[in-house]
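General statements about sequence and structure are easier to judge against a single worked case. For one protein, we set the task of working out the structure tokens from the amino acid sequence alone. The sequence in question and its structure tokens are set out directly beneath this paragraph.
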Amino acid sequence: MPVTHRALVLSAPGRLEFTDVPTPTPPPGHVNVRLHAAALNHRDVWIQKGQYAGIVYPSIPGSDGAGVVEAV
């Protein structure tokens, strides 16, 4: 069974829901961070309203966070 975690997923503009999603394997040059604190900013508001170009749904919002690196 794949490892999953709970995430707030934006499936369409204005449609947020908590769901289980597969834990990604970070590609070269990236990391996975287990968040201890998260914040939403104006970019996330625009994404939620469908006013941010280039967003592909479903999307997991959240541009700001702090935590511990779990995988490299």
The chain has a mean pLDDT of 89. Strands lie at 4-12, 15-22, 32-39, 64-71.
